[in-house]
Design goal:
517 residues, 2 domains, two-stranded antiparallel ribbon
């Protein structure tokens, strides 16, 4: 675990195994230096000495050459080349190919799709036609590799001028290979680590990703997929690389699913109800200024478990929190518009070089800035969640819950707090997606008994059975009816009782109770 003074990690240290900050998805884009329409027309007129109407047939030949190169490259590597007219799930298709033809390294497949991308179009002009950059459909090639250093990755290249390239890598895949080389034990599940033998060393390795020689690495991949580079008509032009999107995640690995399940609904509720626009901007290193031109939105998706998440969006950048596989609390910052953030740069001011605050740029040389800004945002967000408390009940409250009570002039039995069926009911009521908007009879029935039966009598019998359970919980004050609706909510008293009971059952002495049962 990386040494940290984060208040959240310190507060829940007993339930946390490790904390790892690592880049997840990173998307680079490479552009050949052809700027606006005027630059393009000057290049055709004076650089190539072509008539403008002859430029499109000229680049069409090169488009066919890029496709032929992809087919030859796939055949040489024993990989698959496929063309699709419609959209496909590329990741699923590639993983299926890997399952059918396992390999440890090299080209897996080349997929060709028809997509709309920025390319050249001939338009009417005064005296003669003119060339302009427009969105047009064209063939786009996706090269999927198993790279020795970066694992599963892909390179996307447009087959029409100006041959823009996109490179996708995953920081967790890269880190896994680094840890394997360093002989550090770990267990990886998808793009997360559920076990780390040496979290401190893993964090040190993860921090090295922005420091790699990215221009050299990206140029090497570009040279593999674009044989046009270095041709006389393109001159000495190379790609200018930018970071199109960067995700940085902070994973808090808990000791058990139960430990996170007790805490996560309260974190979700606190973030949804308490974090204001000013808070979200502060997490991202911004202040709410009267001249701020944009929206700050919060979107909570609590209807999916596991994987309930909350997303805070500031223009086209966002912060997310979600539970990964029920074991990991993930805080993730995604940067799409880096100029919304300020970083310190050396600038010439009045004849002197000074460190001043400037907007962060997209150039790949700014990768370390992306890293620092996103990591700081995640740490601020986690620290703000430290105010959330785990519910706890007193011995007197637990004793009272075990005693019979009167409800609507009828006697209701006491609760058997540690009984498996009672625990199952508690866990169903405390589900995160049912906490946000409340729950109905049929929601609880679906969670406890599965899909509703088709027979009317059986369905009515199940509804009455759940109704009795709801009355039992209401009689003990664990839930309350939401006025003017058919929904129920968990009370603070119910939070304390049910969460404490679940904690005792699964955390304090689970093996003892299992042996008794």
């Amino acid at each position: 675990m990386k040494p940290t003074a984060n208040a959240f990690v310190a507060k829940f240290a007993d339930a946390i195994v490790a904390v790892l900050g690592c880049h997840d998805r990173v998307i680079f884009k490479g552009y050949l230096p052809f700027g606006n329409d005027d630059h393009l027309n000057r290049f055709v007129d004076y650089g190539l000495n072509l008539r403008r109407k002859d430029f499109l047939p000229f680049v069409e030949q090169h488009s066919d050459r890029l496709v032929a190169h992809a087919q030859a490259m796939a055949e040489q590597a024993g990989a698959v080349y496929r063309y699709f007219e419609s959209k496909q799930d590329k990741e699923a298709l590639v993983r299926q190919l890997l399952h059918e033809q396992p390999r440890n390294e090299g080209l897996i497949a080349v997929l060709c799709f028809k997509e709309c991308c920025r390319t050249v179009k001939l338009l009417h002009g005064q005296g003669r036609p003119r060339l302009a950059f427009r969105q047009r459909p064209q063939r786009v090639l996706y090269y999927y590799f198993l790279d020795a250093d970066f694992g599963l990755m892909h390179v996307r290249v447009q087959t029409w001028f100006p041959y823009t390239i996109q490179v996708y890598v995953n920081g967790h895949e890269w880190l896994a290979r680094q840890m394997r080389q360093q002989q550090i034990g770990f267990v990886q599940h998808d793009n997360a680590f559920t076990q780390l033998d040496d979290p401190r060393q893993a964090q040190r390795l993860a921090d090295r990703l922005p420091q790699l020689s990215w221009v050299k690495i990206l140029n090497r991949w570009a040279a593999q997929v674009n044989p046009l580079l270095g041709q006389a008509w393109l001159g000495e032009r190379d790609y200018y690389w930018v970071i199109d999107q960067a995700e940085y995640s902070t994973d808090v690995l808990f000791t058990s699913r139960t430990a996170l399940a007790e805490l996560y609904p309260r974190l979700l509720e606190h973030a949804w109800l308490q974090f204001s626009a000013q808070d979200i901007l502060a997490f991202l290193g911004r202040r709410l200024h009267p001249c701020f031109d944009g929206e700050v939105l919060t979107d909570c998706k609590a209807d999916r478990l596991p994987g309930a998440r909350i997303k805070h969006r500031m223009k086209n950048n966002w912060l997310k929190m979600y539970d990964k596989f029920g074991w990991i609390l993930r805080i993730e910052t995604v940067i799409n518009q880096p100029r919304e953030f300020k970083v310190r740069r050396w600038r010439l001011r009045r004849g002197h070089r000074r460190l001043v605050w400037c907007p962060m740029n997209k150039g790949v040389a700014n990768f370390y800035h992306y890293h620092a800004v996103a990591r700081a945002a995640n740490e601020r967000y986690l620290a703000a969640l430290a105010v959330v408390e785990l519910p706890s009940a007193t011995a007197k409250q637990l004793d009272r819950a075990c005693q019979p009570v009167q409800f609507h002039e009828r006697r209701r039995r006491g609760l058997n707090l540690l009984h498996p069926e009672e625990q199952r009911l508690f866990r169903a009521v405390l589900r995160g997606d049912l906490r946000v908007n409340g729950f109905r009879n049929r929601d609880l029935a679906q969670e406890l008994y599965g899909p509703a039966p088709t027979e009317i009598t059986a369905r009515r019998r199940r509804t009455n059975q759940v109704c009795r359970l709801l009355q039992l919980l209401r009689a003990h004050g664990l839930i309350a009816k939401i006025p003017h609706s058919s929904r129920y909510r968990v009370t603070p008293h119910g939070d304390a009782i049910m969460c404490s009971a679940i904690y005792l059952r699964f955390k304090t002495f689970p093996k003892t109770l299992d042996a008794v049962a």
